[in-house]
Amino acid sequence: MSNTRSGIGRREFLTSIGKAVGGSAMLRAMTAMGLGTTVAACGSASATSSPGVIVPPPTSSGPLSPRPGDWPAGIGNGRKVVILGAGIAGLSAALEMDRLGYACTILEARATAGGRVRTLRSGDVADETDSSQTCQFDVDDDLYFNAGPSRIAHHHEFLLGYCREFGVQLETFTNDNRGAWLHSPGAFAGQPQVARRIIADTRGGIAELLSTAVNQDVLDAELTAADKVNLLAMLQQYGDLNASNRYAGTSRAGFPGQQSVGSRQRGDLLTPRQLQQLISDFFWELRLSFSQGFEQQPVMLQPVGGMDRIVAALEAQVANNVIYQATVTEIRKTSTGTRIIYSDQSGSPTTIDTDYCIVTIPAPVLASIANDFSTSHQSEIAGFQYSSAVRIAFQSPRFWEQEHNIYGGITWTDQDISQIWYPNHSFHRPNGIVVGAYIFGGAAGDAFTNMAPQTRLDTALQQASRVHPQLSGQAQHGISIAWKKVPFQRGAWGISSPSVLLTADDNIFFAGEHLSILQGWQEGAILSAYTAIDGIVDRDLPP
Q1: Nearest Cα residue to 185 out of 410, 415, 400
Q2: Which residues contact 165 (CB under 8 A, 6 or more apart)?
Q3: For 372, which of 47, 333, 347, 497 could close a Cys bridge (C-beta 3.0–4.6 Å)?
Q4: CA 17 to CA 10: how far, in whole Å?
């Protein structure tokens, strides 16, 4: 928008407001509205939109991402590719290269495909470098725990395209449920607040604040008389202000007793929270802007029955190409391509010579494998950082539905556990799997990672019970995943900014979510695979 009297620029508008009501107050109000500088949640320093992280949008457009259809049919005939890792990047790379005629072999160190895509059910084993846990959930198709990726944005078109192509049924994932809670032990006497109340009162307070600035005539240089009338009308709707442009509460905030089933006070208004209370702590502000991010929308998607349904669908397409329990020990360059040495299931060394290699192994694991990479590639691999995210789940009767009318979504707390997730499927069943902690990383992630599994469960349950006391007596069969201790993964998602690894090292190409604009997302893994394919195809195009 241009900075004219009929079209005020947003920056100029907010600057004028700041002069009227104070810069600090305006900055914090802007952040609460989602208009200020965005920051990473819970200590994450990722520069991309990783799960649970709030980041600014790109400031400029980059090159168009390659995609199937860009590559000539049959371009790979007579050429071989070895793909290291059967996660989403490796599986999608094999699928598309197989379609182009390349002879693909996938080497996967584990006995199953999927990489970070882990769905745990009764009897599954969660191994870590120094412990092992067996999932004790009841045997029930509805009782599962997505320990890795758990949600899909509507614009993750390639991942969704594979779901459509291979018949993976989807359902909604409620990412932002305004009937869920926000909780801080140091605010409101430690009582959880229904999210809709915090949102409604914040909007009302901001709308009143801006209306005051308009009525004090400090924006006359930017607004015409008609602009002021229209803006005040908009603010009345935005914040549900009264005729005097004051916020005196709203039915949008709900009613007294709404956190419990059976309240009869539906006609009563709640006393509004003061804006000063709601902008005094970044915890409240960050929760308001979380679902406004392009990757984090209020309503997202999930596969019916668990995220590993997508892995199973992709795996079925390339099943004959995968060698499981193949631990790569060396990656070497040859005069005509690459040589991969691995230990097979029996521990015997095996060698494969190939034209190309696509490495999707996470950097912390790759750093320990003997290789001939360039010095710059080795340096970036050695320094590449990953999130120390931890997830902890429990089986529990669905008291959140029966007693609090919470159906799916996420409750936030500023304790270390950060989030409590409610199941988004099979409502009104007797039991459900509740994620009692989703810790994105940082100091809290490191602390939980270094705990013994039982200590993690005990600590998470202690903190979660401050939000839902019922959990202390009803939660059972807990299980945790500390991604920095998961063999062949050693981290949840990449948080370094890739540079050298975006380029090939002779005939060795690199892929994985950590090398995409969507770090941490399955779509990012696919995008990185397509980029690697594009580089190989470019080598094979006739002169």
Answers
A1: 415
A2: none
A3: 333
A4: 11
In this prediction the pTM is 0.89
The widest CA-to-CA distance across the chain, in whole angstroms, is: 82
Q: What is the DSSP letter of 505?
A: B
pLDDT band per the 50, 70, 90 thresholds, residue 8: very low
Does one domain contain both 417 and 470? yes
| DSSP tag of 400 | H
CATH, residue 136: 3.90.660.10
Which domain range does residue 340 map to? 80-114+309-386+493-540
Asked if residue 403 and residue 381 are part of one domain, the reply reads no
The mean of the pLDDT values for the chain is 90
pLDDT tops 50 at residue 25: no
Rounded average pLDDT over 23-27: 45
Name residue, tokens 């993690």. Answer: 456
Domain boundary among 280, 297, 322: 280
Is residue 207 domain-shared with residue 240, that is, in the same domain? yes
What count of other Cβ atoms lies within 10 Å of the Cβ of residue 323?
16
Q: Who contacts 156 (Cβ-Cβ below 8 Å, separation ≥6)?
A: 518, 521, 522, 523
Task: Kindly give the residue spans of alpha helices, DSSP state H, lying in 167-296.
Answer: 195-215, 225-239, 275-278, 282-290
What is the C-alpha end-to-end distance of the chain, expressed in Å? Answer: 47
* Residue type present at position 445: G
Q: State the DSSP code for 515.
A: G
* Rounded Cα–Cα distance for residues 255 and 200 (Å): 12
Indicate whether 234 and 145 sit together in one domain: no
Question: Which residue has 């989403």 as its token pair?
Answer: 88
pLDDT digits (tens, 9 = 90+) for 508-521: 999 999 999 999 99
Q: Return the CATH number at 85.
A: 3.50.50.60
Please report where in the chains the tokens 């070497």 appear, as a residue: 332
The tens digit of pLDDT for each residue in 306-326 reads 999 999 999 999 999 999 999
- pLDDT tens by residue, 76-99: 999 999 999 999 999 999 999 999
Count CB neighbours of 488 within 10 A: 17
Residue 542 CB contacts under 8 Å (≥ 6 apart), including other chains: none
Check residue 2 and give its pLDDT.
Answer: 37
89 is a domain residue? yes
Q: What is the pLDDT of residue 265?
A: 76
Q: Return the minimum-mean-pLDDT range out of 62-76, 361-375, 502-516.
A: 62-76
CA neighbor of 96 nearest in space, from 525, 542, 543 = 525
Q: Domain tally for the chain? A: 3
Beta-bridge partners for 131:
128
Same domain, 374 and 451: no
256 versus 8: the higher-pLDDT residue is 256
Res. 33: pLDDT tops 60:
no
Q: Which of 47, 68, 98 is nearest to 314 (CA)?
A: 98
CATH number at residue 261: 1.20.1440.240
